[in-house]
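Researcher: Re-running this chain for the archive, since the previous output was lost when a drive failed. Same request as before.
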Amino acid sequence: MNLKDLEYFHHLVKLTSFTKVAQLLHVSQPTITYAVKRLEEELQTQLIIRDQTHHAIQITESGKLLDAHIAVVLNELKTARVKIHRLQNQKIVLGLPPIIGNHYFPKISVDLLQKKVMDQVTIVSGGSQDMLQLLKDGRVDMALIGSLNKIVHAHLVAKVLTSKPFMIVVSPRHPLAQKQSVSFAELTEENFVLFNEHYVHAVAFEQLSDQVSFQPKILYKTDDLNILKGMLKEQIGIGFLTEIALDQTDDLVAIPLSDSVQPRFYISLVQSENILLTSIQEKIATTVETFAF
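Model: Regenerated structure tokens:
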């Protein structure tokens, strides 16, 4: 089966016009026609129905099924090309959500520098939810990802490195700042400033809200940690963050939750199950995996 034939047919399904496909791919119209004919002969089925009256085509059920599989093949080939290019350049693309990256990567980078592989690491930043998609698309080789459960995903391998609690975060001037702990049910009258849906914090917060059956007052959502911290300092609302989102210079107070059942922030090293690493890339991966989280 010819790869070009598959590509031509995939475009034909999208454009439903031999002329448009030929123009797009800079080939003759008979080239597209013969490609479809070869596929139909090899698969012994009709892939398209030609409507000569309206100069249109219809894709048969067999054609739609074939195209669905072609899309997977073409995407895998695209991912393979990207990974082979990185393999040849000895580079590894590491995905880091901002919270995990800000807290851990400066410390991990010390080990990478000592092993003289720091210049082989390219960092891509984004929320944990987005990072999973980048991994599936092959745009990152591995990532440190935050989740509420152990990550189980087809074609991805995940190893839990540590887990951290979520905290209620307030300004030192807020009345709650004096409490040693707080239950989520005590916060019904509070205004919240939160991360948006790109972060697992939003899911954890929703779980706790459902657990105690109240509708929290959310004033603002953002994907920017610095903006979020600034709003908390100004007492615009209270926050909900994992403990590693804070450092000693933030001038914010983190209050543990006292709820007996509460979500935890799992940090996992996730990579493609079929990733092939060079010795240098393996050294980088091992450095990240064995870091004392």
